[in-house]
Amino acid sequence: MPSANDFIIQEQCQLTADVYLLKLKTTAKLSGYLPGKFVMVALPNELFQLRRPLAIADCQAMQGQLSLVYRTVGQGTNLLASLKPGVKLNILGALGNGFTYQSLTANDQVLLIGGGTGLPPLMFLAKTLAQKGCQVTTMAGFRTQAQVFGTAVFQASGKFLLATDDGTAGIQGTVKTLLDNWSANCRHVYACGPLGLLQTVQKHFADCQLPVDLSLESRMGCGMGACAGCMVSIGQGDLNQHVCLEGPVFSAAEVKL
Q: Is the pLDDT score of 219 beyond 90?
């Protein structure tokens, strides 16, 4: 069951002009903090009543250590970026359903595909799969070199392929460019990023008998399925499941994008 626990900020690192890495620690026992799940962070200011949903970029549960990567997009996340080590944050988690990888074994080939702030959950997944002995390939797309982050994690976990729209890092192009030039076999595909990227991945693998996990990004109010602010259509239904509760990870064969 998710629980709300107090965490202390250990470190706050600026990765790019608007992307930050937040390292936290708690004395509470962390349960269920797995790749693909997320947390809801309460901001230490009564003007911000709603918690902010953030993906888990890394977690060492036994040590009570949690890492979150986020982009500053408004007043709430700008406040979060201003917080210094020693500040206490109340965090609700872990929430949602994460990636399906438990059946994978050593030497299984897996493909991770992400872009922008869709990369944090893939950072945790890449590390976890590498520890299982899987052969990990990660494809990442950014607009320009100044926006690139997470490369060290992906390079340490396996093969890393990078594309930027302007060609300032990696090859010039998008994730689609990388996919069109990739022909290796794999056991499982995982993707997280903006809608266009997820649609590209879904279409690319539509005719393959291959499990494809898509992690959706959505605005959330409660993070627990109560407010119905993050509905998505699955199977034959119409807006019948919550990104925060049944997701954020869904099968590409079922979710309507």
A: no
